[in-house]
Amino acid sequence: MRQRFSDAELDQLFRTARTRNAWKPEPVPQSLLRELYDLAKWGPTSANLSPGRFVFLTTEAAKQRIGPYLSANNRAKSMAAPVVAIVAYDLAFAEHAPHLFPHNPGVGAWFADPATAQETAFRNGSLQGAYLMLAARALGLDCGPMSGFDAKGVDAEFFAGTTWRSNFVCNLGYGSDENLFERLPRLPFEEACKVL
Fold it and tell me: What is the torsional sign of CA 114, 120, 124, 129?
């Protein structure tokens, strides 16, 4: 039987973790971004085909490229974040089936229909984005996920001529309590769950 996480670990991942709107001016080294991906990549996806793709904007020039496509409410806090991550997905994810699902390399054919590929890539890429945020928290980083951005503009700026598409944006770094909202409520078990 696996050991339960400690209360301190559960707090860091969920209970006291907060969406950050302001950031300390501490850089996030590229080695930590590699460690972050190398942890997040182990989360499960359909047939292990891992459609999630991540672009880490760490320089001022790179962040300026995404700035025009962020909503007015998200622009300043993203420009101040040490890292702006574009969480994306690859519509051609099934091409990796022979490597990622070697016991049945033909599994890629399940996703030949473009609508099926889109749905699968988006769903599993979203899962991988969530794994990335939990991995970030586990490694001591704070997160500021957001969907207030022009996806078509981001895709044209960063993914033109590719099969990658943006899903959401997530600021990463060491958060400050500045502009931190009060903890918002969540639905209770009785309203959000059924046990049958």
Answer: positive
0.70 surpassed by pTM? yes
Q: Alpha-carbon distance 143 to 121, whole Å?
A: 23
- With b for 16 or more beta-carbon neighbours within 10 A and e for fewer, the 67-78 pattern comes to eebbeeebbebb
Would you say residue 86 has pLDDT above 90?
yes
Q: Is a pLDDT exceeding 90 seen at residue 165?
A: yes
What burial class does residue 173 get, using C-beta atoms within 10 Å of its C-beta: 0-12 exposed, 13-18 middle, 19+ buried? buried
- Cα separation, 189 vs 177, whole angstroms: 29
Domains in the chain, please, with CATH? 7-175 (3.40.109.10)
The CA distance from 41 to 91, in Å, is: 18
Task: Tell whether the model's pLDDT for residue 18 goes beyond 90.
Answer: yes
Judge whether residue 48 has pLDDT over 90. yes
Residue indicated by tokens 């990658």: 164
Residues 6+ apart with CB under 8 A from 79: 63, 64, 67
What would the pLDDT profile of 114-143 be if each residue is shown by its tens digit? 999 999 999 999 999 999 999 999 999 999
Q: Given strand 142-146, what is the order of strands in its sheet?
A: 52-57, 83-90, 164-173, 142-146
